[in-house]
Amino acid sequence: MTEVIALQDKVAYLQSILDAIGKSQAIAEFEMDGTLIAANPMFLNLMGYELSEVQGQHHNLFLNEQEKSAEEYSHFWHALNRGEFQAGEFKHLNKNGTEVWLQASYNPLLDAQGKPLKVIQFAMDVSEQKSVLRTVAKNARHLSDASEELTSVSQHMSSNAEETSSQSNVVSAAAEQVNRNIEVVTTGAEEMTFSIKEIALNAHEAAKVAANAVKMAAETNQLISRLGDSSAEIGKVIRVITSIAQQTKLLALNATIEAARAGEAGKGFAVVANEVKELAKETATATEDISGKIEAIQTDTVGAVKAIADIQTIINTVNDIQNTIASAVEEQAATTSEISRNVTEAAKGSHEIARNIAGVAEAARSTSAGAGEAQRAASALRRMAVSLQELVQKFKF
């Protein structure tokens, strides 16, 4: 009797242990052929069945068709029938066909001779952890792919940034060269503007001189014209003097004749008359010489008037040309000043371009440095992704 009580106490103790375990774990009992004998409420709740629906059913009720016929499943039950403990993560399907992952142990219960009598399963639901692990694994793959893509992009960006920096340096150098050339052109334009202003000033001075020459030529022409008129008047006087000299000569001749008739008394008068005649003759000769010179002067005066008139015409033409040149030079000076101003603006623009290009080059160098940092960060991410994948792969799912 005492032994029976002790045995009952031991059974009650073991049942209390099973009850305690059943509060936190799903428990099911199977025959050695896999037929379900009993299951606690937690197991039934996880699988979505009533006990009457699963009692007497084979364990493969909770597997899909492929897993039922798998060689591994056959080996699983053979091992249990040899009394070998089986533990791990197992995928089951509940009544709705939804996957339920269990962290379970299948424990063969042995009789006194060590022969397996039945199998008891203790399991915990790890479906949520499995889902999390799947998500982590998926994200780890995505992270690895993203890190590789980031590495590729950062390498490409670094290469492009270096090329941009190199090209920016070339453009900057070219801009500086253009700027130097513009400065040379600006200097030349300024010098040309100064020269054109000098030419314009000289052209104005030449125009003034030409205008004065025209005025002086006109005055000289008038003076020579008056000289011609005076010469004509002198010619008239010479003709009068010549006429008087001729008359005086005739009178002297008559006086000589009369003196000869008077004889001795008229000798003195004859001498005077002869002297008068000779004087009249010399006067006529001198008057003829003067008349010839006056005629030559008149002829030269006419030629001078014509020459001065021609010179005046030429000077007028030169004056017109000088005025045209002065006007054109003034226009050219204005144009050159505008060119000089535009070139100066271009020089400012070239300076600005060179400054901006230098900024682009600096930005490209910063981008290249940033790309290098991104590449290093991508490499670190890739290493972390690989490590994460390795950790996740340690879990069976």
What does this structure look like?
A hairpin with a 4-residue loop joins strand 1 (26-31) and strand 2. This protein has 397 residues and is an alpha+beta fold. The protein has helices spanning 2-22, 41-47, 51-54, 65-68, 71-81, 127-262, 267-393, and strands at 26-31, 36-39, 86-93, 99-110, 116-125. The protein folds into 2 domains: 2-125, Beta-Lactamase (2-Layer Sandwich), CATH 3.30.450.20; 162-384, Orthogonal Bundle (Helix Hairpins), CATH 1.10.287.950.
Task: List the SSEs and their pairings.
Blueprint (H helix, E strand, L loop, with lengths): L1 H21 L3 E6 L4 E4 L1 H7 L3 H4 L10 H4 L2 H11 L4 E8 L5 E12 L5 E10 L1 H136 L4 H127 L4
Antiparallel strand pairs: 1-2, 1-5, 3-4, 4-5
Helix pairs in contact: 6-7
Q: Number of folding domains? A: 2
Overall radius of gyration: 70 Å
Strand content: 5-15%
The succession of helices and strands, N to C, reads HEEHHHHEEEHH
Q: Kindly provide the name of the CATH class of the largest domain.
A: Mainly Alpha
What is the CATH architecture descriptor of the largest domain? Orthogonal Bundle
CATH superfamily annotation of the largest domain: Methyl-accepting chemotaxis protein
The side-by-side strand order for the widest beta sheet comes to: 2-1-5-4-3
Q: Helix- and strand-based class?
A: alpha+beta
What is the typical, i.e. mean, pLDDT?
78
Q: Which descriptor suits the 3D outline? A: rod-shaped
The profile of the biggest β sheet is: 5 strands, antiparallel
DSSP summary: helix tally: 7
Helicity range of the residues?
Answer: over 70%
Tally the beta strands. Answer: 5
Looking at the structure, the CATH topology of the largest domain is: Helix Hairpins
Low-confidence blocks of residues: none
Cα-to-Cα separation, first versus last residue: 53 Å
Domain Methyl-accepting transducer: 139-382
GO molecular function, one term: transmembrane signaling receptor activity
Biased composition (Polar residues): 149-171
Protein name: Chemotaxis protein
